[in-house]
Amino acid sequence: MSEESFSAWLRAQCADEWEAVAGHPFAAAITTGDADMRHYLEQDFLFVDSFTALLGAAVASADTFAARVPYGQFLGQVATAEEKTYFHRALAALGGSTEAAPEPVTAEFRALMDEVRAAQDYPLIVAVLCVAEWSYLSWAERAEEPLPATFVHREWIDLHEGPEFRAWVDFLRGELDRLGPALPEERAAQVLATFRRAVALERRFFDMADADMAVTDMAVTDMADADVADADVADADVADADVADADVASR
Asked: In this structure, are residues 104 and 43 in contact, taking their beta carbons and an 8 Å threshold?
């Protein structure tokens, strides 16, 4: 490991995958207000329970009181209030559901959260939390002003880019940086494996959302094409009727 911080080293080991998340087409579409958010938010909402439990495990397993406090604050102020309120408002506006069936990648990510929570392994808990939050900051901070007019897109960006969220990510990175130098090589490798696994799941989650949006766009295009075809048929019928009327008139 070089002189760089432990969190920076972890990210560098999966730099291509990380950039695939931060620069993902679906993430970019969120920042421009073009993303179809319904299915994506339905799936993201399914993480709330596992994520909340993971924060609770961080409070319980953290090795210092100073570390426990930010987890408790985030748990109370954001995970169970502001963000959850956003989900309900956004899904109501989009005609979505808070009880959607999980996609395979959603189930896998929840399983990872539950796995490290059950193990009460603090460095692994921080690794998963850090990927979840830092990777979202990485795409949200690329949003350019003016932000989308729709609250569904704009508030989702704000939730993952503002000063409080940046401070939260800095805290998580700081915890990894504090823990990393004291970890034996085998444990550092275990943290890296978990970090990589979480990054890969973040990419697959965006892939799922992007594929779903492509299917929706295709369906809309097909419907538009069908409408055009129906209009063409109708025009042809009118033209045939005009020819028939002309024939009758000529007789």
From this structure: no
Measured between alpha carbons, how far apart are the two ends of the chain, in Å? 95
Handedness of CA 150, 155, 157, 163 (dihedral sign): positive
DSSP assignment, residue 180? G
- What string of pLDDT tens digits covers the 251 residues of the chain? 557 999 999 999 999 999 999 999 999 999 999 999 999 999 999 999 999 999 999 999 999 999 999 999 999 876 666 677 899 999 999 999 999 999 999 999 999 999 999 999 999 999 999 999 999 999 999 999 999 999 999 999 999 999 999 999 999 999 999 999 999 999 999 999 999 999 999 999 999 999 987 665 444 444 445 454 565 655 656 556 564 555 645 54
Cα 220 from Cα 211, distance rounded (Å)? 14
* CA 44 distance to own-chain centroid: 6
